[in-house]
Design goal:
The chain contains 13 helices and 19 strands. Strands 1, 2, 3, 4, 5, 16, 17, 18 and 19 form a 9-stranded mixed β-sheet that branches. Strands 6-9-10-11-12-13-14-15 form an 8-stranded parallel β-sheet. It binds N-(aminocarbonyl)-beta-alanine and zinc ion (2 copies).
């Protein structure tokens, strides 16, 4: 035994109970009352909760995007992750034109491996499909990257035909397709209209991508998945119409899964009227109160499966490129260090249970993307990725107390009730009381298993 976390209240997706956790060789070796420490290092978690580390299912670290590269690289992004209780990140590989899928993963892994401070896995965004790539999807599944993404927007967005083909292929090989669903042509039309009328502020980012623009694309994507009986994962769902479509499909028994993000659960479209509105520009944009309410209701019903960040931050000077033209604002916001503290705070305030937060931010992510039971659980044999959480610690989020490389945060001034005080990654302490204590290059690639989701239940 190397480590014992004693006297804490263990919180999993399904249970809350008092016990000690013993760790050996980076794995949980025993969970029991009053474990004899022998020579192990002891951490006293009296009065604290012990949770599985969060798994951020959606990050864009060092991603070339919006005329620049997202401003958290693999080191700073995963350092911030550790300090927010995230012990695994799923980062997006963007396939280059003509590039093979495994080559794309290896290219990104070469950047990530020497830098990552916590464990990581990949999803690959398919941008250039042909018969060889369709075949290679199977090799990617075997390589440990069974999840792919298609974008219905941006210059690397795919055609309907490509989306249809990857969906069809996915169900044959144990893969899962994630989709960024918005209607590109309507967005382009509304952007051109607003610019021609001299409407250039950040508000018009929202006005060019209002609720129905996302809902229509959700509906179309779900329709195809239903026809094929292929599983589908809708990333960063932000609108009430889409929630209705997801709920209906799930009620009918289809394997449709939705992720939302803390920024959609906390802010509303009013942020785009603020002087710093451009800092909140992300796609899909943050919607109105009705959509926020629908997202929380879907979380409570079980129709949202995961909460992830879509962490894709840019520095203030980059956001400022769009001061006089919203189309020049690089799209994306930060959140990797805020995901678990924010969601746990909502539980601490009584909105949902702590178990539900663990389910959304950790266990379900591991189950959906094929890395359970190694990740996302507190169970003998699972990796000792653990967070010690102090429910009594009040914390006000500020750029000054964050650990990424970004010069601002959209979460500035937000008060949370309760905060992580320690994060362990495979039994190693990587964060303690506000300080990062881990090391660059410690994080390992997590090889995920094939994914077989044939109904709405995990
Ligand atoms: O605005 C966003 N979300 N930027 C990151 C890329 C994406 O669409 O997920
Ligand atoms: Zn997206
Ligand atoms: Zn994203």
């Amino acid at each position: 035994m190397d480590l014992i976390i004693k006297n804490g209240t263990i919180v999993t997706a399904s249970e809350t109970y008092k016990a000690d956790i013993a760790v050996e060789d980076g794995k949980i070796s025993m969970i029991a009352e009053n474990i004899d420490p022998q020579n192990a290092k002891v951490v006293d978690a009296s009065g604290k909760m012990v949770l599985p580390g969060a798994i951020d299912a959606h990050t864009h670290l060092a991603m070339p995007f919006g005329g620049t590269i997202s401003a958290d690289g693999y080191e700073s992004g995963t350092r911030a992750a550790a300090c927010g209780g995230v012990t695994t990140v799923f980062d997006f590989v963007l396939q280059a034109k003509g590039e093979g899928l495994i080559d794309a993963v290896k290219r990104r892994n070469a950047l990530c491996e020497p830098e990552a401070c916590v464990d990581y896995a990949f999803h690959t965004a398919i941008t250039d499909l042909n018969d060889d790539i369709l075949k290679e999807m199977d090799e990617s599944v075997k390589y440990g990257v069974p999840s792919f993404k298609v974008f219905m927007v941006y210059d690397f967005g795919v055609t309907d035909g490509t989306f249809y083909q990857v969906l069809q292929r996915s169900k044959e090989i144990g893969a899962l397709i994630g989709v960024h669903a918005e209607n590109r042509e309507i967005i382009d039309t509304l952007v051109a209209k607003h610019l021609s009328e001299g409407k250039t502020s950040a508000w018009y980012h929202y006005a060019s991508r209002p609720e129905f623009v996302e809902a229509e694309a959700d509906s179309r994507a779900i329709r195809w998945a239903k026809e094929l009986h292929a599983p589908l994962y809708i990333v960063h769902l932000a609108n009430s119409g889409g929630v209705e479509e997801v709920t209906k499909a799930r009620d009918e028994g289809y394997p449709i899964f939705a992720e939302t993000c803390p920024q959609y659960l906390h802010f509303t479209k009013d942020v785009y009227k603020r002087e710093d509105g451009r800092n909140f520009v992300c796609s899909p944009p943050i919607k109105g109160q009705e959509s926020q309410d629908a997202l929380w209701a879907a979380i409570k019903r079980g129709d949202i499966t995961t909460v992830a960040t879509d962490h894709c931050p840019f520095q203030s000077y980059e956001k400022d490129w769009g001061k006089d033209d919203f189309t020049k604002i690089p799209n994306g916001c930060m959140g990797i260090e805020n995901l678990y503290p924010y969601m746990l705070s909502e539980a601490n305030k009584g909105r949902i249970s702590f178990n539900k937060v663990v389910e959304l931010c950790s266990t379900n992510v591991a189950k959906v993307f094929g890395c359970a039971p190694q990740k996302g659980m507190i169970a003998p044999g699972s990796d000792a990725d653990l967070v010690v959480y102090d429910p009594e610690k009040d914390f006000t989020i500020s750029q000054k107390n964050m650990h990424s490389d970004i010069d601002h945060t959209i979460w500035e001034g937000v008060e949370v009730k309760g905060y992580p005080v320690m994060t362990f990654s495979r039994g190693e302490l990587v964060y303690k009381d506000g300080e990062f204590v881990g090391s660059k290059g410690y994080g390992k690639f997590v090889k995920c298993n094939p994914i077989h989701l044939d109904g709405p239940n995990l």
